[in-house]
Amino acid sequence: MSDPIIRSLLDTDLYKLTMQQVVLHQFPGVQAEYQFRCRNTPAFPMAELLPAVNRQLDALCELRFTPDEIAYLRSLRYLKPDYVDYLELFHLNRRFISVTPRADGRLDIHARGPMVQAMMFEIYVLAIVNELYFDELIRRQGIAGGHEATLEEGRRRIGAKVDKIRAFQTSLPANAPPLLLADFGTRRRFSRDWLEEVVKVLHAGVPDVFRGTSNMDLARRLGLTPIGTMAHEFLQAFQALDVNLRQFQKAALESWVQEYRGDLGIALTDVVGMDAFLADFDLYFAKLFDGLRHDSGDPVVWGEKMIEHYHKLRIDPATKMLTFSDSLDIDRAIALYGHFATRTQVSFGIGTNLTNDLGIEPLQIVMKLVRCNDRPVAKLSDTANKLMCDDPVFLAYLRQIFNLERI
């Protein structure tokens, strides 16, 4: 077998661990199913990668957290001692994930089992599929200079981004709010080594702007701040737990508050659309959470709605953080900074455009929660092509409950 792509269980996003801790503490017996999807058309049938994907998954399931990694996790105050004890014993069980070819040449990947297990496959699977795909694509295309020429183009592009950020910093007045960028690109990276190179370039080139990375392994080894709180799957799970469906967002937010008691206070808004979220995000939650994360729909419309909502609740938006993370590039981040930074705190999590911008079309791959306790769940984002649900009856019911006919 070729070298393992995933060499550390910390090679994942922080929010997988923060969500897993809540699941372990508050609903450890929940069963879950995650489904892989590619939203664009690959350059060749991805089912041809199946043997290599299976070999990589075999290697992944042999990994354990090392003593140094456990010591690092114990240093993070929001991770509870008993949860880190659990991670010291943790490993992924191979029987909970399957990979099969589809008739259309795509890959069918499902993780099924206890949620504390199944939820952890996502980031590893996406990183594995990406790296195998791009290695094979470069080989097939016969690109002059091959892999190294592709990396050189990537270096040229990330260098231009650093220059653009520096020029924008120079143009700001001395008392301007800071421009804050973080790497959110683990799941969409070109390769493990390229992600590390990009993060090092940003950290060295714009240290006052680059605030950290979602990747726990890089955060530990490079002394960076790990960034992340929750993803859609956390709120989606409550659609299938023993709570009134109309109240699932409030139940999820309350669960988070009880677990973290003021830490990790950025909430995600688009599991059933921004308007439905704001109907549940009352004064209680608006005061308890530090801010919100945008991940679908028009970011300017979203930000304006959020500022208006804070004003209605008589909360100063300048005391809150709006984090933008949907398909961003440097130009878009700078434009959003210019629009909002004088009225509220802003930060930007950039993924694909940082870690997979090398002149080859990136894959748009996801692995999302589709069932919980054998009941369907749905993600109804403010962007139509991000909808994820395998049960049209439940989807119709959810739309009715939240008055979401237009989504």
UniProtKB/TrEMBL annotation:
Pathway, according to UniProt?
Answer: Cofactor biosynthesis; NAD(+) biosynthesis; nicotinate D-ribonucleotide from nicotinate: step 1/1
**Which intervals hold domain Nicotinate phosphoribosyltransferase N-terminal?**
10-130
Post-translational modifications reported in the UniProt record = Transiently phosphorylated on a His residue during the reaction cycle. Phosphorylation strongly increases the affinity for substrates and increases the rate of nicotinate D-ribonucleotide production. Dephosphorylation regenerates the low-affinity form of the enzyme, leading to product release.
- Nicotinate/nicotinamide phosphoribosyltransferase domain residues: 181-405
Q: What is its EC number?
A: 6.3.4.21
Q: Which UniProt keywords apply?
A: Glycosyltransferase, Ligase, Phosphoprotein, Pyridine nucleotide biosynthesis, Transferase
Q: Which SUPFAM superfamilies does the UniProt record give?
A: Nicotinate/Quinolinate PRTase C-terminal domain-like, Nicotinate/Quinolinate PRTase N-terminal domain-like
Recorded catalytic activity of this chain's protein: 5-phospho-alpha-D-ribose 1-diphosphate + nicotinate + ATP + H2O = nicotinate beta-D-ribonucleotide + ADP + phosphate + diphosphate
What is the role of the protein in this entry?
Answer: Catalyzes the synthesis of beta-nicotinate D-ribonucleotide from nicotinate and 5-phospho-D-ribose 1-phosphate at the expense of ATP.
Q: What is this protein called?
A: Nicotinate phosphoribosyltransferase
Organism from which the protein derives: Microvirgula aerodenitrificans
| Gene from which this protein is expressed | pncB
